[in-house]
Design a protein that fits this description.
CATH class of the largest domain: Alpha Beta
Structural class: alpha/beta
CATH topology of the largest domain: FAD/NAD(P)-binding domain
Largest sheet: 7 strands, mixed
Distance between the termini: 71 Å
Strand content: 15-25%
Oligomer: single chain
Helix content: 25-40%
Shape: globular
Length: 461
């Protein structure tokens, strides 16, 4: 039986972050991966392929609208399966790159499915081979999540898909129903709209992505509708009839929606059901998620959990850091839970959204005196050149100290633009005037910070 200082279950972002942190700290580390290659759901059927698909769809959409390429428009009628192939090369390169990380850091990759034998011992079941048993001083559970499947739906039917299986849909749909208007639902609704499909987005809440700043959420709703999306708020699933040529989705309001394919994007389940958690003295909730402390420690002190399996925010970027923080606490006993407060959020709709810090609603509820600075992308030279004029940058700042409290961006490259504000917010000299006193390249999208800062200062009494 092999013994390790740390065994990590899963090689997605959280597992990779934990394994690398431990290896670089001189620990003997092994990772267990049940898929045939490393990378987890993020690399194989989540973030990487869906964002590669988004990029391909956006590229074709933009080329079709480009007046310089009018004569080539007929040649740009690529099918959905053809666009999906754009992700193949990216996934292969990401897998090879991550495999090298493990090899370079001398981390053992154990292929198979892990389950606990006792709090310190794991069994790795391998297809076509005897099970392997390993002992670990510490364990990090980073097994990820999968789309939630309600028992009433038959996901074996070719016209009923989840966010994983939609990446294998074999034709270009004419009409798509998306149930669930969370991040994944909004992203896929946006992708299919820009592919030219008729899209109905069914939302169980009264507005889209209520955790966003209200103005950004409203802007997303407006632009989805402008692109042709039908949004149904405050609706709930009541049944589904999948037929040979279409699918009829039934709502409790008595509405029926007919489309070529139903994409169920309402909730995810943690991959804890095969781990035999009870043998380690652990349990999961109804959604397969494991409860942890602010240091990502479970009820069993030497066992940690990170990433999707602990629930929201379920972002790849945050998961990687959670894995690192878990190992840091395991090795030093120290942690800084405040570090997560400046984690940015990226939502890859078209246009995309990104934010860091607090929203207007949160500042109002906390009774913090604040003001707002705006920069409309349509006024920026760079946006005019690239014809990406939809969107804005919004800065929230303390009305007295000028401390930047929140950065919210809607538009092309939002997930890149937000990091400038994030850096300023994390500095000890956090002040809105930084953006005025700094020289930005011209023309750039980053110039929006200077424009927004001036706009905000002009509002002050």
């Amino acid at each position: 039986m092999e013994r390790y200082d740390l065994v990590v279950i899963g090689t997605g972002p959280a597992g990779e972050g934990a394994a690398m942190m431990a290896a670089k700290s001189g620990q003997r580390v092994a990772v267990v991966e049940r898929h045939f290659e490393v990378g987890g759901g993020c690399t194989h059927w989540g973030t990487i392929p869906s964002k590669a698909l988004r990029h391909a769809v956006k590229l074709v959409h933009d080329l079709r609208l480009n007046p310089l390429l009018r004569e080539y428009r007929r040649a740009l009628n690529l099918s959905y399966p053809q666009l999906l192939h754009a992700a193949d090369g990216v996934v292969a390169r990401q897998v090879a790159q991550r495999r090298r990380y493990y090899e370079r850091n001398k981390i053992a990759v154990l292929e198979g499915e892990a389950r606990f034998v006792d709090p310190h011992q794991l069994e790795v079941r391998r297809p076509g081979a005897n099970a392997l048993k390993v002992k670990a001083d510490r364990v990090v559970i980073a097994a990820g999540s999968r789309p939630y499947h309600p028992p009433e739906l038959d996901f074996s039917h070719p016209r009923i898909r989840d966010s994983d299986s939609i990446l294998k849909y074999p034709e270009t749909p004419f009409a798509v129903t998306v149930y669930g208007a969370g991040v994944i639902g909004c992203e896929y609704a946006s992708i299919f709209l820009n592919l030219g499909c008729k899209v109905t987005l069914v939302n169980t809440q009264d507005r889209l992505l209520s955790f966003l700043d209200d103005e950004i959420s409203e802007a997303l709703s407006y632009h989805l509708r402008e692109q042709g999306c039908i949004i149904r708020h405050n609706e709930a699933f009541d049944g589904c009839e999948a037929r040979e040529r279409d699918v009829v989705f039934k709502l409790k309001s008595q509405r029926k929606i007919k489309s070529d394919v139903l994409l169920w994007a309402n909730g995810r389940t943690g991959n804890s059901d095969t781990l035999e958690l009870a043998r380690a003295g652990l349990a999961s909730n109804a959604r397969g998620q494991i409860k942890v402390s602010t240091a990502f420690q479970t009820a069993v002190p030497h066992v940690y959990a990170a990433g999707d399996i602990i629930g929201p925010p379920a972002l790849a970027s945050v998961a990687y850091d959670q894995g690192r923080y878990a190992v840091e606490h395991a090795l030093t006993g120290k942690t800084d839970p405040g570090r997560a407060s400046l984690a940015p959020m990226g939502i890859y709709t078209l246009p995309e959204i990104s934010a860091v810090g607090r929203t207007e609603r949160e500042l109002q509820e906390a009774r913090i005196p604040y003001d707002v600075g705006h920069a409309a992308f349509k006024s920026l030279a760079r946006a005019q050149m690239t014809d990406e004029t939809v969107g804005m940058l919004k800065l929230l700042f303390h009305a007295e100290t000028l401390e930047v409290l929140g950065v919210h961006c809607f538009g092309d490259r939002a997930s890149e633009i937000v990091h400038i504000g994030q850096t300023v917010m994390a500095s000890k000299d956090n002040n809105l005037k930084y953006f005025i006193n700094t020289t930005f390249n011209y023309p750039t999208m980053a110039e929006a910070y200077r424009v927004a800062a001036h706009n905000g200062l002009n509002r002050l009494a």
